[in-house]
């Protein structure tokens, strides 16, 4: 089988779609009698070498040649600007929806309605969460995103720290809500809790100013941008992962990474985050500090609930390993050739 995998962005770019595309390409290539070529707009090559071919920023003529070569087309997120010749060539095609075509509450402009309409031409459409399915393409099959199980795992059961936030420091990610939570816990309970903030972005200075305002400098660590190994180490030392996104996340792989490292995720109820945690975390009302505080206090006070959540982690993670998710996609790809 010859698979042409379209990914608008790819290594050395860093992001969710890029990492998932790489995972799919590696998994498909590892199978007997399967050849994979990745097609991307990313020009930079980076230092990493791959066992499969990567075609970067191809011309229309090159895309047509690749389409004639392949048996099936798989787009990890729609790549209409790259793959459009296949609307004429008509090779079997699948698409995985990894993010919004429009935002969950955004105005559905004409070009976005057109993109949604084009999804009906695919043999199979897969959505990474129920919310993406409901907003974008109601006939989609839902397959949750994978996480890097080879790196994100539990290595330390001595969790000496409390809360951790991992993400870009922008207003949509809600890092300030973590600081508000810590302040209210200290006020309401009198005892001290700790918060570690990993990430960088334009909100860094305002978050530090908020910590100073509440006199929390000794209780909050700002670690900036860290590599994967350092993030794994920090997650393993913390009990609770905060994912207080104001934006409705399409899925939320960071929640899976926290669960894998033994954290209990506390996430907003927007977008795909409830799917990402399943029964292995708790959710609160998006963009509501009072709901975050109430949910967190109920969790802190209920040891039985914490044990139940931690016990659900393993089964939840099994459905989101690279192998489990790739198997489901590969079966859909293989079945597309039978029709």
Task: Describe what this molecule looks like in 3D.
- The protein is an alpha/beta fold.
- It has 14 helices and 13 strands.
- The protein has a seven-stranded parallel β-sheet, sandwiched between helices.
- Strand 11 (238-243), helix 10 and strand 12 (264-268) form a beta-alpha-beta unit.
- The relative contact order is 0.12.
Fraction in helix: 40-55%
The biggest beta sheet reads: 7 strands, parallel
**Major sheet strand order:** 3-2-1-4-5-6-7
Residue fraction in strands: 15-25%
Topology, pairings included?
Elements: E1 2-6, H1 16-29, E2 35-40, E3 53-56, H2 60-69, E4 72-76, H3 80-83, H4 86-89, E5 93-97, H5 110-118, E6 124-127, H6 130-136, E7 141-142, E8 161-166, H7 175-189, E9 195-198, H8 204-213, E10 220-224, H9 228-236, E11 238-243, H10 253-260, E12 264-268, H11 273-277, E13 282-284, H12 289-300, H13 303-318, H14 322-336
Parallel strand pairs: 1-2, 1-4, 2-3, 4-5, 5-6, 6-7, 8-9, 8-11, 9-10, 11-12, 12-13
Helix pairs in contact: 1-14, 7-12
Q: Short summary of the structure?
A:
The strands form 2 sheets. The chain has a 7-stranded parallel β-sheet, with helices on both faces. Strands 10-9-8-11-12-13 form a 6-stranded parallel β-sheet, with helices on both faces. Helices cover 41% and strands 18% of the residues.
């Amino acid at each position: 089988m010859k698979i042409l995998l379209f990914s608008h962005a790819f290594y050395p770019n860093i992001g969710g779609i890029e990492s998932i595309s790489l995972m799919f390409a590696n998994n498909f290539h590892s199978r007997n009698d399967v050849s994979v070529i990745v097609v991307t707009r990313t020009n930079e090559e980076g230092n990493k070498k791959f066992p499969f071919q990567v075609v970067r920023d191809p011309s229309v003529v090159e895309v047509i040649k690749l389409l004639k070569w392949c048996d099936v087309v798989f787009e990890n997120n729609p790549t209409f600007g790259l793959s459009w010749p296949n609307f004429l060539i008509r090779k079997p095609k699948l698409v995985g929806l990894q993010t919004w075509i429009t935002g969950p509450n955004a105005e559905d402009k004409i070009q976005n309605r057109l993109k949604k309409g084009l999804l009906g031409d695919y043999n199979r459409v897969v959505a990474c969460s129920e919310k993406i399915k409901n907003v974008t393409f109601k006939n989609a099959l839902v397959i949750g995103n994978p996480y890097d199980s080879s790196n994100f795992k539990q290595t330390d059961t001595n969790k000496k720290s409390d809360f951790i936030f991992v993400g870009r420091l922008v207003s949509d990610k809600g890092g300030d809500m973590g600081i508000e939570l810590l302040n209210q816990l200290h006020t309401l309970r009198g005892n001290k809790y700790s918060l570690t903030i990993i990430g960088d972005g334009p909100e860094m200075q305002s978050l530090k100013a908020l910590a100073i305002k509440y006199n929390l400098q000794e209780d909050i660590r700002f670690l900036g941008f860290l590599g994967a190994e350092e993030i794994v180490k920090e997650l393993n030392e913390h009990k609770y992962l905060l994912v207080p996104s104001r934006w409705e996340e399409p899925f939320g792989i960071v929640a899976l990474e926290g669960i894998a490292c033994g954290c209990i995720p506390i996430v907003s109820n927007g977008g795909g985050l409830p799917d990402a945690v399943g029964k292995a975390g708790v959710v609160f009302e998006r963009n509501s500090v009072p709901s975050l505080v109430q949910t967190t206090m109920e969790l802190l006070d209920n040891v039985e609930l914490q044990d139940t959540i931690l016990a659900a982690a393993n089964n939840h993670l099994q459905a989101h390993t690279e192998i489990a998710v790739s198997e489901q996609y590969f079966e859909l790809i293989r079945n597309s050739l039978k029709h």
